[in-house]
Amino acid sequence: MKYIECPKVYKENSKSLFLAGGISNCSDWQSKLVALLKKTSLVLLNPRRKYFPKDNPNIDQEQIAWEFDHLNRASAVSFWFAEETLCPITLYELGKQSTINKPLFVGIHPNYKRKKDVEIQLKHIRPEITIVYSLIDLSNQITEWESKR
């Protein structure tokens, strides 16, 4: 596994996975998923920074631009909907990514308040996606996909 964290730029062409999901006001689920995927050969693209420079007046623009670019560069995208927040940006990203022919992996915490909405919407637009309800199951889906490539 190779790990790329925002703001570092990924320019290679290896199998890569973008870790989409809540950052603000939620637990660091990304580090748990990274640990579960450490034995893969994937390049993991993590938008969560260890240090977020709030004193930078351009930080929001830079963060969003990084996420936009790396979502487009990634071979696949995983989504995790944490229970602590509604994850409005993650919902937006899922809507966009679900219209692109790219592997998607979707996990929802059982207590996520918009769980039914995500389930129903995905059933209509990407019925082949099997939603899971734990980070372990999400990592298992990703690992299985990676091993078939």
Total of helices: 5
Q: Whole-number average pLDDT?
A: 96
What spatial form do the alpha-carbon principal axes imply?
globular
Please give the number of β-strands: 5
- Amino- and carboxy-terminal Cα gap: 15 Å
As for the number of domains, it is: 1
Low-confidence stretches: none
Task: Please provide a written account of the structure.
- By secondary structure, the chain is of the alpha/beta class.
- It has one domain: Rossmann fold.
- The protein has helices at residues 29-36, 59-73, 88-97, 115-125, 135-148, and strands at 2-5, 16-21, 43-46, 76-81, 104-108.
- Strands 1-3-2-4-5 form a five-stranded parallel beta sheet, sandwiched between helices.
- Helix 1 (29-36) links the parallel strand 2 and strand 3 (43-46).
- The radius of gyration is 15 Å and the shape is globular.
